[in-house]
Amino acid sequence: MRQGWRWFGPAAPVTLEEVRQVGATDVVSALHEVPIGAVWSAEAVEARREMIETTAPGRVPLRWSVVESIPIPDAVKRTGGAAKPEIEAWIASLENVGRVGIPIVCYNFMPVVDWCRTELDFVTDTGATAMRFDVDTFAAFDLFILERPGAEADWSAEDRARAKTIFEAMDDQAVSNLVRNIASALPGSTTEPLTIPAFRNKLEQYRAIDSAKLRQHLIEFLAAVTPAAESVGVKLTLHPDDPPRPLFGLPRVASTAEDYAALFEAVPSPANGMCYCTGSLGARADNDLPAIARRFASRIHFAHLRNTRREADPRTFHESAHLDGDTDMVAVLKELAAEDKRRSAGETIVFRSDHGHRMLDDLSKTVTPGYPAIGRMRGLAELRGILHALGHPPETVRAA
Questions:
Q1: Which of 278, 290, 332, 336 is deepest in the core (most CB within 10 A)?
Q2: Catalytic pick among 107, 114, 116, 239
Q3: Out of 217, 301, 355, 357, which one is annotated catalytic?
Q4: Which of 136, 340, 354, 362 does the annotation list as catalytic?
Q5: pLDDT digit string, tens, across residues 234-269
Q6: Residue in 165, 107, 112, 108 with CA at minimum distance from that of residue 134
Q7: What pLDDT digit, counting tens, does each position of 166-206 carry?
Q8: What are phi and psi of 317, to 5 degrees?
Q9: b/e per residue, 52-80, with b = 16+ CB within 10 A?
Q10: Predicted local distance difference test score (pLDDT) of residue 400
């Protein structure tokens, strides 16, 4: 297994030199500056690869091994194979990525909103801060800020009462912060930032799309792009929904083992793979994380390893320390290590310590929400230690 690190580009607070210092060998990145739907040019991809992989003498080399993500335009999610120009542009980006030797592309298929949190700096019992999804605060947004038509039907009377209490206690700044967190796109998001009116309009465009229709659109997309991935030696990895359940009345189709099974049956190519995210899948109590890893082992090419802890209302969760949440990370790594041992060197699983607590010096610094250096370094060290204890230490790279 290879140790990855998500890097948001040259303007990111964490530098490539710091990535080396934490022990990562593989960079997970994207051309975040390119608008959604535009083609990633071969020149731009190559320039970013050179930036990541050009190494000063005496330094450990890094490798850009995962693209996360090439955003899928909204038109593809709404219309599937009918969005031919958008799919062709996506294929062109994929081919340019593959031709420079980047072997893995991660993507997601969440409509309108990408990963969703209500708080970015929830104070944990250690004093470190974490991201949190609070279902009552989310309901307050849905019912009283977004004022989504039909939202009342999705919430119980008790839910609505708690949400109203929360909303009435909010001042203008609290409302603005919540709108930013939910509607304005979190780091790495592959959906467009939205104003509240634009949010309502976008939801209206999905009114006739249920889970069966959205899944069919994803299958049509995969049927179109998988041959191109095969031709350039790229493995596609679908990231789970986050949280793994419907939001705003929208369907979600990558939340459970059965969701993935349906996609692998429909498009059986080995290039059609999975981004195994323990944080996203683990937010559902009915997802058995080790069993999912075992069932889809051969499809896992990229792993996000993080942990969450469900609260008194299990719909609410916060990002826990990597070894201190609801997911048994040792059991998960046993499954991943067993699969990795079966593979050739060129097919090893890339993993990264996803998210992380904001702690120590990072509490007084500007950080990318969800991606502070020290919390992720702690997580990576813990995961690395487990792999050593399992007798399958991650690959190491030395300076030339």
A1: 278
A2: 239
A3: 355
A4: 354
A5: 999 999 999 999 999 999 999 999 999 999 999 999
A6: 165
A7: 999 999 999 999 999 998 767 767 788 889 999 999 999 99
A8: -150, 160
A9: beeeeeeebebbbbbbbbbbbbbbbbbbb
A10: 72
225 exposure class (CB count in 10 Å sphere: 0-12, 13-18, 19+): buried
What is this structure's pTM?
0.96
pLDDT attached to residue 213: 98
Q: Which two tokens stand for residue 178?
A: 């919540």
The one catalytic residue among 277, 318, 322, 340: 277
Cα of 344 vs its chain's centroid, Å: 26
Distance CA 309, CA 75 (A): 35
Our CA angle for 55, 61, 62, nearest 5°, is 105
356-360 long-range contacts (CB < 8 A, ≥24 apart) are: 356/306, 356/319, 356/322, 357/124, 357/126, 357/128, 357/129, 357/130, 357/319, 357/321, 358/121, 358/128, 358/129, 358/130, 359/126, 359/127, 359/128, 359/129
Q: Which domains, ranges and CATH numbers included, belong to the chain? A: 2-116+203-389 (3.20.20.150), 119-195 (no CATH)
What's the N-to-C CA distance of the chain in angstroms?
Answer: 21
Predicted local distance difference test score (pLDDT) of residue 148: 96
Structure tokens at 106: 């991660």
Beta-carbon contacts of 98 under 8 Å, excluding residues fewer than 6 positions away, are 229, 231, 232, 233, 234
**Which residue ranges of the chain lie beneath pLDDT 50?**
none
For the chain, helix (H) and strand (E) counts, in that order, are 14, 12
Catalytic annotation, pick one of 217, 301, 304, 318:
304
- In this prediction, residue 190 carries a pLDDT of 75
CA distance linking residue 69 with residue 240, whole number of Å? 13
> Is 277 part of the annotated catalytic residue set?
yes
Distance between CA atoms of 191 and 114, rounded to whole angstroms? Answer: 6
Instruction: Please say if 371 is a catalytic residue.
Output: yes
Tokens representing residue 151 in the block: 């939202």
pLDDT for 192 equals 81
> What residues have CB less than 8 Å from 113, skipping those under 6 apart?
182, 183, 191, 247, 248, 250
Q: Is 304 an annotated catalytic residue?
A: yes
Instruction: Provide the pairing of β-strand 317-320 with 350-353.
Output: unpaired
Known active-site residue 388: no
Closest CA to 236 of 363, 343, 108: 108
